[in-house]
Amino acid sequence: MFNATHNLPPDHQPTQPQASSVLDQVLNLANLIKSKDLYTYQHQLSVAQHAAAIADVLKLPNDDIFNIWCGALLHDLGKLNVPNTLLNKRTKLTDEEFYTVKQHANHGRVIAHMLRLPEVITDIISQHHERLDGSGYPYALIGEQISLPVRIVCVADVYQAISHRRPYRSALGDEFALAELEKGADQLFDAKVIWGLKQALAKKAFITQFSIKYIKKLAE
To answer: How far apart are CA 20 and CA 99, in angstroms?
Structure first.
């Protein structure tokens, strides 16, 4: 259990440290997650690579690619405070269990604020389950209230979760995942980001290049 106070002021703005120190902190936290639950770590790393690839396709600057990758690698940071019995449950969660799991977005925000992670990374951690129509959580943000970096990680997260194996089901594949995203284009998910994902997926090697080694070079 990662202990942190929930009484931080809502307008708390962390200072912006150097990229190299941010990356060191991010990788240390990722390793902490890895030691708790390997599946969550592997999921986050895959989401980070896909999100960075989308950002590159959309021609975002390197600073944005760096922050998006770091935020995606920690987007489930709050699951440090969720019991592994729930994270790895092989049957459907009860309503009470699902509520507990959903709290990872709030747990992650608190941890990120306490550690003074950059705001864009904190937003990704706390808002990656938001949806354009306001149906997401924990804040029910709508439209432009959701930043582009968060929108990118939302799409990468959903794609990875659907296409790959989950503790409670087998992988459903790329085609099914893309079809589900397309159903929610410009209602749940940013259509431009979905387009970016499809462009990135056309070249699998393009996605895997966004490794830890590559991001370390961006931080130099």
So the answer is: 36
